[in-house]
DNA sequence: CGACAGACTTGGGTAGACGTAT
DNA sequence: ATACGTCTACCCAAGTCTGTCG
């Protein structure tokens, strides 16, 4: 076991503002101490973000900022409302503009400098192989944002110093030098873990790690193992489903809750839903942490029976909204679990993820709740590709089918994105193209008619040829219109769907590789360079007859 | 057990690189 | 050549799950 690296690259130290860029308090300029000024710039940079208008953000920021002030500053700066950061804000906006306006040569020079750092710090040696590191830089200080309604938004995220950093490498390797005048917190030689360096972050008091890039052998092997576990689930999933159906009728409530939760995890690809510390993070839930207020039962709805309406915030505060017709015993059990409870009570009050996973472990070695997501995602891709791919289609048509299959998975896993800022605009441009094409089609139709009339009158061969010519043109235009319409549909369907996460984390790449080989699609058409590096193991391994 | 620490995967957002249409 | 839209790389937060400790 050998692990050798340079340690993390530390982001540059704070550079003080020029003299003429001032902070104002209560309308008067105020020279700030270096540390206080640095934190002020964090806030100033964010001025045009909506979240600086949120009370929690402002309070957290002001509280943390005051802690870092000198006692003199604390005496003066008592209200955030009286702080004027606008000059500082403008300074950074201008600086940004200036950087964008740099000449090609200057930009090239900056890039070379960045490449040099990457070259020096971005790689390590693992068992004799040079491997790319994922994140080799420490995170810069700033104001914590978080996602959704995070109670800690606006808090000060402190600068990481070498004295905070634990280095992990092999005993026989060249131990990285800390920056001049500094020491590491610790150097250890632990070959049971995969990280190269770590530090504790001050907002949630959790560890951050420097780890290898997904293209590395180590990560690739882990990825492969993950999909192999999911493939093993394929063999036993029918038994497991039979089992949880039986458990719906168990005399133990705890077992019933486990069986219903597992049904949701399997059918709807919900996350496990660990419990979280209240007040420390945004209020989000997964399966086991669902509360009564997150579901509504409809004995009948839109012509379906036993409909459960889900509405809750999941990971990253992404909304999960779904109406699902469930099997009758599930519906009955849910009614029972909700009886005499308040909206804020846990739906599965007897259930924890640990209890659920213990059970799963017993059903299959290595089985946990999240394996169902991987399994269902991958099997769905395989089935959808089978159903949607038409061998007669051209490459573009086949790729559309691939995207549709990918999209089915993203919908299953509820991978959403906010509508891109340019969406409306680019949709409009496309619509204009469609309208123009429609007009052309209409004109071509008129032309055909005219030519036909002329032929009917004259019956001469020249006129007949002209009819054929006009018809051909019409056909081509109609095809172009159809293609534009497909494109518009595709775009609209993809508006709020994020395909990347499933592609990167849930879909066994061997399914895609096999599909490409089978239908003669170049692999570059579905995986970009980074993705090909990450999935190199699969590209090597999978033949066209690979079955998940 | 249950709380907590630790390690690792999964997740959406965004700046800026990049490619394409004009 | 440039403007503009799209894609990628990067960022770092937020999950999952295991092991340990009292």
Automatic annotation (TrEMBL):
Signal peptide: none annotated. SMART domains: TOPEUc. The keyword Isomerase applies. It catalyses: ATP-independent breakage of single-stranded DNA, followed by passage and rejoining. The active site is at 506 (o-(3'-phospho-dna)-tyrosine intermediate). InterPro entries: DNA_brk_join_enz, DNA_topo_DNA_db_N_dom1, DNA_topo_DNA_db_N_dom2, TopoI, TopoI_C_dom, TopoI_cat_a-hlx-sub_euk, TopoI_cat_a/b-sub_euk, TopoI_cat_euk. GO terms for molecular function: DNA binding; DNA topoisomerase type I (single strand cut, ATP-independent) activity. Releases the supercoiling and torsional tension of DNA introduced during the DNA replication and transcription by transiently cleaving and rejoining one strand of the DNA duplex. Introduces a single-strand break via transesterification at the specific target site 5'-[CT]CCTTp site in duplex DNA. The scissile phosphodiester is attacked by the catalytic tyrosine of the enzyme, resulting in the formation of a DNA-(3'-phosphotyrosyl)-enzyme intermediate and the expulsion of a 5'-OH DNA strand. The free DNA strand then undergoes passage around the unbroken strand thus removing DNA supercoils. Belongs to the type IB topoisomerase family. This is DNA topoisomerase I. It comes from Cyanoderma ruficeps (rufous-capped babbler).
């Amino acid at each position: 076991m050998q692990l050798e690296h340079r340690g993390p690259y530390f982001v540059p130290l704070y550079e003080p503002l020029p003299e003429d860029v001032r902070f104002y308090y209560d309308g008067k300029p105020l020279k700030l101490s270096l540390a206080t000024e640095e934190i002020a710039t964090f806030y100033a940079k964010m001025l045009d973000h909506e979240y600086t208008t949120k009370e929690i953000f402002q309070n957290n920021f002001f509280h943390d900022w005051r802690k870092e002030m000198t006692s003199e500053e604390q005496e003066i700066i008592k209200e955030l409302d009286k702080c004027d950061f606008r000059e500082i804000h403008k300074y950074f906006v201008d600086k940004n503009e200036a950087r964008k306006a740099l000449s090609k040569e200057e930009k090239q020079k900056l890039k070379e400098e960045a490449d040099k750092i990457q070259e020096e710090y971005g790689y390590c040696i693992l068992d004799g192989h040079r491997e790319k590191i994922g994140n080799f830089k420490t995170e810069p200080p700033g104001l914590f944002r978080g996602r959704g309604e995070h109670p800690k938004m606006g808090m000060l995220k402190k600068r990481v110093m070498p004295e905070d950093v634990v280095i992990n490498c092999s005993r026989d390797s060249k131990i990285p030098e800390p920056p001049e005048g500094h020491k590491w917190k610790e150097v250890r030689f632990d070959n049971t873990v995969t990280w190269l360096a770590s530090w504790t972050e001050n907002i949630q008091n959790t560890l951050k790690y420097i780890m290898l890039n997904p293209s590395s052998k180590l990560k690739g092997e882990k990825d492969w193992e993950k999909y192999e576990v999911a493939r093993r689930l394929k063999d036993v999933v029918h038994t497991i489903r039979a089992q949880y159906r039986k458990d719906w009728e168990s005399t133990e409530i705890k077992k019933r809750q486990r069986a219903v939760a597992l049904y949701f995890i399997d059918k709807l690809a919900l996350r496990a839903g660990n419990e979280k510390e209240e007040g420390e993070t945004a209020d989000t839930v997964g399966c086991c942490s669902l509360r009564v207020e997150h579901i509504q039962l409809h004995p009948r709805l839109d012509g379906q029976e036993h409909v459960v309406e889900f509405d809750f915030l999941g990971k990253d505060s992404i909304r999960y909204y779904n109406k699902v017709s469930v099997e009758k015993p599930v519906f009955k059990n849910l009614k029972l679990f909700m009886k005499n409870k308040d909206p804020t009570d846990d739906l599965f009050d007897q259930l924890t993820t640990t209890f659920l996973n213990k059970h799963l472990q017993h059903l299959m070695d290595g089985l946990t709740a999240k394996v169902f997501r991987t399994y269902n995602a991958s099997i769905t891709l395989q089935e959808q590709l089978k159903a949607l791919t038409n061998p007669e289609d051209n490459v573009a048509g086949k790729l559309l089918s691939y995207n549709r299959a990918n999209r089915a998975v993203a919908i299953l896993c509820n991978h959403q994105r906010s509508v891109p800022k340019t969406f409306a605009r680019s949709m409009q441009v496309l619509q204009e193209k469609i309208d123009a094409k429609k007009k052309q089609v209409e004109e071509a139709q008129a032309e055909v008619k005219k030519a036909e009339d002329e032929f009917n009158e004259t019956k001469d061969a020249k006129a007949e040829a002209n009819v054929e010519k006009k018809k051909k043109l019409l056909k081509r235009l109609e095809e172009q219109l159809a293609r534009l319409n497909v494109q518009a549909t595709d775009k609209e369907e993809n508006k709020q769907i994020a395909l990347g996460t499933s592609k990167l984390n849930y879909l066994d790449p061997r399914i895609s590789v096999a599909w490409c080989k089978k239908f003669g699609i170049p692999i570059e058409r579905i995986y970009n360079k980074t993705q090909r590096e990450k999935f190199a193991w699969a590209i090597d391994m999978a033949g066209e007859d690979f079955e998940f």
